[in-house]
Amino acid sequence: MTRDVDHSHADPHPAPHRSVSRRDIVILGATALLAAAIPAILFRRGPASLSIGNRDFLNLLADPAAAAKLGEIWFAESRPAETRAVYETRLARRLRNFGWSPSASPELARRALAASTRADYLGDRMVAIEKWHLAETEADLCALAALIMRTRTPAA
Hints:
Helix content: 40-55%
Order of helices and strands: HHHHEEH
Number of strands: 2
């Protein structure tokens, strides 16, 4: 004897959330990898100190010219503030949120920078510059690099 089961009624236990698709997993995985890789790619070494105001942040960048170029493109595309003090202050505020201070060790400065970048990615605080999607912290560093490069005289 077979028993007929009525499947026409709604599920009494509907899923509370939509399911996670493969696309979502791939995007989240790629974002996590990118967030972990960018600080290592852009920043080759920590400085002896990071005293805001007299610190040349270009020494933090592996390729200052490329970062400055992205900063200039950002200025041309969206016209953010173009004052060096703005970006130095933003960077100091962001790093302080992760335990950095001007007297912090280079290792702590690197960890705070990486943590700030990861927090930007997780908080979806992104800046699109051409085809690049950078964390706000990274974009601020690119803008600062552009402003510093503007004030440097070319080598003769």
